[in-house]
Amino acid sequence: PPLQRGNYCISKPLSGLFEKLGSTVGSYPFYFFIIPLFLSAALGVGFINLEDVADNDLERQFTPRKGPSKAVRAFVQENFPYNDSMFSEDRLYDKPHFASLIAVARDNLNILEGPAFEDVLRLNDKILNITVGNGQLAFSDLCAIADGECVSNVILDILSSSEAGPSSLTYPEYTYGSRSVFLGFVLGGVITDGRGSVRSARALKLLYILGDHENEVSKLWLRGFKSLMSKELNHNSLMLVSYYTSKSKQEEIDSHTTDGFPLFLITYACAITFSVLSCLRMDNVRNKVWVAVFGVLSSGLAVLSSFGLLLYIGVPFVITVANSPFLILGIGLNNMFIMVSDWQHTHVKDPVPERMAHTYKEAIMSITITALTDVLKFFIGVTSDFPSVQSFCLYTATSIIFCYIYTITFFGAFLALNGRREGSNRHWLTCKKIPSDRPDGRSKMYNICCVGGGYDKSTGAEKKQPASNFFKDYYGPF
To answer: Where in the sequence is the signal peptide annotated (predicted)?
Structure first.
């Protein structure tokens, strides 16, 4: 059929090309082994830029670039410009930089009077005196301005100006001057006398809003606020204090950017263990423990090279990218098992270049098709309107390319080197030549540990030697 002829026209020349490549790798394995190591070391230097290119900005990375909300915001900014000298939360285009705390009195004390309220005032004074920029900028220099003054906590203004104290408050609304203030936002655990007058409250919320200043200056002040609050949490005996800033959510995400790396190492350790068990042979020559280890290492080098390259050229590293190494590990292990399987079907007495040529001819075609489809899928994902998805797909697609290259070079080269060891009948661990037949007069332990190299005489391929059959040879049937 025409379809089969088309596939044949494509697969035949590619198989021939891969066959030649396998023979070349088998003839000169050292070069194909060492060059990827040097390349990975060189590209891995790009990880020094990780902190600079890490970008987990919630709006920039996790919202669509051309979303309607951004178009609406641009329209509002153009037609309703904001006046920095007259703070109005309703007219802000974005949430302002702010710090907030909630103080809760211990032992059912009233937070609005007595020692607990004095502690609140003391803490408020400390916050207002936080300075940044070598002590030159305090809250009064950075605060949001309304009517020529800092936007203050109205509840403190009310309590400071009221001669009757908390008993003069009405809840949930209180008339302060010429305006009505809703106290439900700032008071918690309120007890009233039944007529709306406040008798006591357990919790008090304070808010400190910063004006439109340089982002770095605001970050410094918020950092000082967090430092002060962490000390208050440990030393305040009259009230519990919880706090939150406009940067808290962002800082939590930033702090978890590299959390996946320890899990990545654990996963690779588990993968090595699984691969070693899968490639374990009871024959001391045919054992492929090191093949399994270097198969997993090949995936690790692919991640190191691809990530290092993209970090070096400044591609944003988003927290979603931390999932990519786990996908690459699965692809790399699949490639390794395919190549090992085809290698085991070659004739053990053939020269290594010939065995490698056969292995590449049979295995690399399927590996190539899988790599092409995977790369195509993730490069299509780069067209997403979400920057975080774009970064993930770009890092993953590049890693798959490197994984493919290192499979046919680095891992193939080690498979050839391991084939040379097998061809000279050397021990998998000590690399010393050992007899292929059990010598007379030797102990059973010697025969178990120091004999190997058997193969199926009828097919010329490696023997399938389960552990039970191996021990039967030496200890008899179970």
So the answer is: none
Q: Which residues lie closer than 8 Å to 167 by C-beta, 6 or more apart?
A: 197, 198, 199
| pLDDT tens sequence across 52-88 | 998 888 888 888 888 888 788 788 778 877 766 677 6
Buried/exposed code over 200-222 (b: 16+ C-beta within 10 A; e: otherwise) = bbbbbebbbbbbebeeebbbbbb
Q: Which domains does the chain have, with CATH numbers?
A: 8-56+268-423 (1.20.1640.10), 95-254 (no CATH)
> Amino acid identity, residue 289?
V
- Other C-beta atoms lying within 10 Å of the C-beta of residue 384: 15
Neighbouring-strand partners of residue 245: 99
Query: Which tokens is 347 given?
Result: 């004739």
pTM of the complete model: 0.80
Distance of alpha carbon 348 from alpha carbon 9, whole angstroms: 31
Tell me the three state secondary structure of residue 431: coil
Question: 182-185 long-range contacts, Cβ below 8 Å, gap at least 24?
Answer: 183/155
Query: C-alpha distances in angstroms, 421 versus 414, 429, 447?
Result: 11, 11, 19
AA letter at 349: K
Structure-block tokens of residue 175: 């008339």
Identify residue 418 by its one-letter amino acid code. Answer: N
- What φ, ψ does residue 197 adopt, rounded to 5°? -85, 140
In sequence order, what DSSP letters do the residues of 81-128 get, joined into one string? ---TTS--GGG-SSPPPEEEEEEEEGGG--TTSHHHHHHHHHHHHHHH
Burial state string for 39-52 with b = 16 or more CB within 10 A and e = fewer than 16? bbeebbebeebeee
Output the 3-class SS for 157-182.
HHHHHCCCHHHHCECCEEEECCEEEE
Q: 135 near 200, Cβ under 8 Å?
A: no
* Chain segment 161-212, per-residue pLDDT in tens: 755 566 688 888 988 877 888 888 899 999 888 788 888 899 999 999 888 6
